[in-house]
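Thread amino acids onto this structure.
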């Protein structure tokens, strides 16, 4: 899987390159040699028209009717941005620009492509982290642009004519790409979460340094084959728990897969409108539907349910299904045999047996428990609007994944000033050469300490001799 979270496929949007989130180049398709699945759902998709239409419209910005609007957004920010360092205000400006750019896309599919692509970009940057590798990599502003695992990113999200790249180059190049990509992804997550409630700004730390080279980084991205990939990438290398890994993979609720780049086409949720919302619907869909294998035995084997859904068939990857079901030895099964017979009389499970659940002694049962916890969210059914358990776990997991390998990151300052202005230097502590005592007689500091010490009365004239330099009580001494 080359996308972003291991099983994650925060896929782009409907029409472009989304490569499933965690699907690396072997997962399994690049831009050429595409093997379109031979099933009733994919036969209804006009791939040639889709690739020459929506894909072209997203990549060739000069043909887009929203081009002028997007360029205006970028230019306006250049004129209004006053600071040239990463502050809280600059973070907010990036957030606002992402929101404005997203609003120029007129369909949920194209908007999902743009928003999902941004999160995928940040994820592909941090998913290559390896704490014991010769090069740790991780969130360092570098992905292998030549690798098929990053197909789509280099044509629609991060390229010389891509909106996000131009926004960065023209307005925010004074910060690292690594920090910018994460802020942009944070912005997408906030904007698409329910009531903008998943705001990752408070936990954001800056100071990542870009790497000039990350050869073979794409080889570290997870495949879409099984939960062994989740364990290898998310648990072993990123240092997450099963609950945190499941939360990250829940980002599949946003975006979509594309046959032209990943070999998996469609959305993880029910409708295109739901694919631009960051919520717990992905976990509900895992539990609710009768998922059955599609293209079993082929390199692009995945799962689907129900009748065709236009150009957005529903699907799950093996790395999605294995979070809830033990499909390691038998993937020829149905995830929910209790789903009623379809109106046309067909069995939604196609006569397949129920998929196995994990034994409580299996460590992967923790993943299944997390799926259920996020879906039910404390309710008696999954039909509730409580996203808090999912959001809380995601914030923790995202925080770990985006800071791996860095030990000196800093919180956002309010201004470019690195510190408060220094205090005025202290006045030099010296004795007066002479002064008049209480009777008007001219004295010096030697007299003050001769015989009977008189510092209690004359220390303000002789602070050095009386040893009171820098004290706050000198001005109150009696003269």
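Threaded sequence (479 positions):
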């Amino acid at each position: 899987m080359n996308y972003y979270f291991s099983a994650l496929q925060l896929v782009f949007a409907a029409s472009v390159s989304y490569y499933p989130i965690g699907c690396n180049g072997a997962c399994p398709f690049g831009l050429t040699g595409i093997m379109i699945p031979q099933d009733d759902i994919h036969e209804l998709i006009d791939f040639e028209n889709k690739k020459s239409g929506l894909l072209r419209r997203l990549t060739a910005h000069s043909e887009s009717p929203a081009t002028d609007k997007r360029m205006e957004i970028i230019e306006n920010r250049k004129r209004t941005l006053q600071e040239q360092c990463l502050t809280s205000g600059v973070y907010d400006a990036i957030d606002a620009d992402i929101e404005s750019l997203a609003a120029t896309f007129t369909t949920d599919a194209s908007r999902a492509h743009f928003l999902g692509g941004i999160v995928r970009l940040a994820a592909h940057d941090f998913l290559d982290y390896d704490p014991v590798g010769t090069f740790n990599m991780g969130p360092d502003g570098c992905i292998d642009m030549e690798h098929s695992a990053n197909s789509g990113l280099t044509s629609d999200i991060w390229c010389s004519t891509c909106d996000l790249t131009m926004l960065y180059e023209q307005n925010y190049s004074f910060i690292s790409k690594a920090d910018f990509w994460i802020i942009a992804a944070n912005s997408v997550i906030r904007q698409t979460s329910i009531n903008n409630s998943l705001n990752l700004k408070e936990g954001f730390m800056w100071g990542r340094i870009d790497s000039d080279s990350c050869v073979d980084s794409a080889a570290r991205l997870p495949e879409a084959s099984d939960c062994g990939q989740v364990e290898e990438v998310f648990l072993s290398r990123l240092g997450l728990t099963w609950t945190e890994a499941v939360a990250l993979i829940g980002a599949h609720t946003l975006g979509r897969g594309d046959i032209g780049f990943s070999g998996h086409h469609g959305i993880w949720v029910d409708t295109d409108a739901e694919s631009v919302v960051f919520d717990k619907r992905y976990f509900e869909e895992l539990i609710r539907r009768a998922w059955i294998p599609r293209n079993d035995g082929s390199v692009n084997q995945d799962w689907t349910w129900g009748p065709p859904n236009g150009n957005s068939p529903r699907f799950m990857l093996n790395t999605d299904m294995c979070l809830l079901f033990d499909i390691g030895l038998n993937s020829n099964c149905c995830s929910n045999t209790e789903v009623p017979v379809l109106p046309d009389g067909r069995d939604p499970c196609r006569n397949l047996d129920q998929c196995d659940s994990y034994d409580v002694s299996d460590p992967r049962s923790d993943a299944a428990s997390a799926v259920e916890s996020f879906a039910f969210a404390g309710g008696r059914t999954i039909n509730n609007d409580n996203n808090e358990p999912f959001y809380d776990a995601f914030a923790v997991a995202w925080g770990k994944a985006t800071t791996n390998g860095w030990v000196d990151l800093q919180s956002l300052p309010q201004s470019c000033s690195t510190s408060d202005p220094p205090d005025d230097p202290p006045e030099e502590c010296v004795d007066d050469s002479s002064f008049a005592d209480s009777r008007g007689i001219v004295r010096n500091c030697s007299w003050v300490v001769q015989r009977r010490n008189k510092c209690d009365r004359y220390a303000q004239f002789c602070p050095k001799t009386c040893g009171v330099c820098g004290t706050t009580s000198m001005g109150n001494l009696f003269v």
